[in-house]
Design a protein that fits this description.
It contains no helices and 5 strands. By secondary structure, the protein is an all-beta fold. A hairpin with a 5-residue loop joins strand 3 and strand 4. The chain is globular and about 40 Å long.
């Protein structure tokens, strides 16, 4: 997974907003921990990709607020 993050609004997504590339293990699970963050509302999107560099569609916006 390619993980995109933007502070204040949904990511576009673009390479300058990439915060992680997370491999998926054999069970299909992926874990990503984004810390430490300053206060604010962070928005995330994820996009799958294959070994042949084929990209999937970006996910919907997910967000969380750090206080």
């Amino acid at each position: 997974w390619i993980i995109y993050r933007n502070l204040g609004s949904a990511p576009t997504p673009s390479w300058d907003q990439v915060v992680a590339v997370v491999p998926v293990d054999g069970s299909g699970d992926a874990v990503f921990l984004d810390t430490p963050l300053e206060a604010g509302t962070y928005h995330y999107k994820a996009k799958g990709f294959a070994a042949d560099s084929t990209n999937g569609a970006a996910s919907g916006d997910a967000n969380g607020t750090v206080t």
